[in-house]
Amino acid sequence: MPLDIFGFSIGKKKSSTSVDPIESKREESFVTPETYDGSYALETGGVFGTLVDFAGDVRGENAMIRQLRSISMFPEVDQAIEDIVNEAIVMSDDKKPIKLDLEQTNLPDSIKSKIYNEYKYILRTLEFHNKAPDIFRRWYVDSKIYYHLVIDTENPQKGIKEIRTIDPVKIKKIRKVEKDQRRVGHTSVPFVKNVEEFYVYTDTDKDSPYQTSTNGIKISPDSISYVHSGVVDGNSKKVIGYLQKTIRPVNMLRQIEDAVVIYRISRAPERRIFYIDVGNLPKNKAEQYLRDIMNRYRNKLTYDASTGEIKDDRNHLHMLEDYWLPRREGGRGTEITTLDGGQNLGEMEDVEYLLRKVYRSLNIPISRMEPDNGFNLGRAAEITRDEVKFFKFIEKIRSRFTDLFVQLLRVQVVLKGIMTDDDWNEIIPDIRYKFNKDSYFSELKETEILKERLDMLNQVDEFVGKYYSSDWVRKNILKQTEEEIKMIDSEIKAKGEDEEPEGEDY
Predict the structure, then answer these.
(1) Contact residues for 364 (Cβ-Cβ < 8 A; gap 6+)
(2) If we measure between CA atoms, which residue out of 442, 438, 439, 445 comes closest to residue 379?
(3) Residue 260 domain-assigned?
(4) With contact defined as beta carbons under 8 Å apart, do 178 and 49 qualify?
(5) Per residue in 83-99, is it b (16+ CB within 10 Å) or e — as a string?
(6) Number of Cα atoms under 13 Å in the Cβ half of residue 118
(7) What is the DSSP letter of 504?
(8) Are residues 144 and 203 in the same domain?
(9) Confidence of residue 402 (pLDDT cuts 50, 70, 90)
(10) Among 323, 339, 355, which residue terminates a domain?
(11) What is the pairing mode between strands 271-279 and 187-201?
């Protein structure tokens, strides 16, 4: 097994052999808890044990990560990723890329203020104001991101001192499930006894066959911040990246582009066909005579201006060579003809098809990637369905990425004694993260919706108080919530009280 445990643990006191022990009999189950976080399962206990082949799995996962990184450097894929990153992380001088919102929580203002300060500290430690696009891109491409949380073990109440990035190929999450056999009637059933989660870090070469769970450092889960894409393979139960479905179309596109280049080089030039009259010469002498003629006319001396050398360029690429064919007596004698080049060299339908397939696999609207289709700043009605789907996709990956700040803030507020681990877990559903937005499409949509609502309000205004109540109009046409209605009414009332009546002129 790995070396001794490294790191720290917060929250409830845990047993020496378990991270999440089964504390009571009613919590016992024969089903292993599933987390769908890409961790490697290890089952022990009873009269048998099961160990996953970590060596093969780890090397396979690391190879997949390297493949995703290679795919991301393909020009079209890189352009699409940049578009996704720019939409998800909007950098501006006056606004933060991601803003913490605690208004939905029931925490006192003093606690909120402390959490806001710790959030600012986390952003400064991550250098998020400068590296936000790079962090998001790395997480998007690798499908996962790891951070080591460095603290002062002698003074843990000082919180996180440093946040260091860990290469995903060097660390893996392990879930050790301990089971024991129980008699249920006449059958022996394995019940889950303890579940231990930890990380294994190894600094060996990523291609080394010795990179396994038995060679590395065992790290406490609280010392690591681990955020994955949330996309899980239904068969292997492993986390895969958003670029996973792009691998096949990109490889197909590469192959078809190479084939097109080879075809164009081989078919583009016009080549000559030399029919050489060899008369009645025997076969060997006819072949020798044909080679002499070929060498005589293929001999070409060239001058290299860069080196001042004279070169003999008789050796050409095979696909560009002329054809030399012998002809016996009785034919038309020596003759030179021309073989035309390819006639359909401008057809690119197959390449364009695969290119569109790559864009669809990346969830990018094709109109954004094609140069002939410009960006139309029209009415909201002109926004395509692809743009709406793309906006929803961006919102989904944003929501998944915010788990990074949830984990970092949890460790920080617990170590500093601002909140307990249980209290923090209770407010997690009420925490919101607001991303900076500059999408013109979303602005257009909101403006157009408000305009349509106001037009409808003008049409039903004469029926208010007769067929419709004011509250019904505000809730169903203007779509105002109870909180918004109260806030608007209070603002109108306060403004009316502040206004002084105009005095009369005497």
Answers:
(1) 80, 83, 84, 390
(2) 445
(3) no
(4) no
(5) bbbebbbbeeeeebbbe
(6) 27
(7) P
(8) yes
(9) very high
(10) 339
(11) unpaired
Instruction: Tell me: do 234 and 287 sit in the same domain.
Output: no
Distance CA 352, CA 253 (A): 9
185-202 pLDDT, tens digit per residue, is 777 777 777 888 888 888
Q: Are residues 237 and 319 in the same domain?
A: no
Going by C-alpha positions, the residue among 219, 238, 236 that lies closest to residue 228 is 238
Tell me the pLDDT of the chain averaged across its residues.
Answer: 77
Query: What is the chain's alpha carbon radius of gyration, rounded to the nearest angstrom?
Result: 35
Please indicate, yes or no, if residue 503 is contained in any of the structural domains: no
233-247, 375-389, 409-423: least confidently modelled range = 375-389
Statement to judge: residues 28 and 170 lie in one domain: yes
**Domain count of the fold of the chain:** 2
145 and 151 Cβ atoms separated by less than 8 Å = no
pLDDT above 70 as % of the chain: 71
Strands (E), 288-343: 301-304, 309-312, 323-328, 335-339
- 75-78-79-83 Cα dihedral, nearest 10 degrees: 170
Domain that holds residue 306: 271-339
Report yes or no on 473 lying in a domain.
no
CA distance 458 to 440: 27
Query: Do residues 40 and 137 both lie within one domain?
Result: yes
As to burial, measured by CB atoms within 10 angstroms (0-12 exposed, 13-18 middle, 19+ buried), residue 253 is: buried
Q: Are residues 191 and 302 in the same domain?
A: no
Q: Which residues, other chains included, contact 174 with Cβ-Cβ below 8 Å and sequence gap of 6+? A: 39, 40, 42, 197, 198, 199, 200, 213
Inter-residue contact 300 to 314 (CB < 8 Å) = yes
Residues 37 and 160 in one domain: yes
- Say what the pLDDT of residue 486 is: 85
- Give the C-alpha separation, 334 to 118, whole Å: 90
Sign of CA dihedral 435, 438, 440, 444: positive
User: Do residues 144 and 38 make contact, with C-beta atoms less than 8 angstroms apart?
Assistant: yes
Question: DSSP code of 259?
Answer: H
Positive/negative CA dihedral, 128, 134, 140, 144: negative
**pLDDT score at 438:** 65
Q: Does any domain span residue 291?
A: yes
* Residue among 129, 115, 99 at smallest CA distance from 434: 99
Domain-ending residue, one of 339, 364, 382 = 339
Q: What are phi and psi of 434, to 5 degrees?
A: -100, 120
Same domain, 152 and 294: no
**b/e per residue 109-144 (b: at least 16 CB within 10 A):** eebeebbeebbebbbebbebeeebbebbbbbbbbbb
State which H helix or E strand residue 183 sits in.
strand 171-184
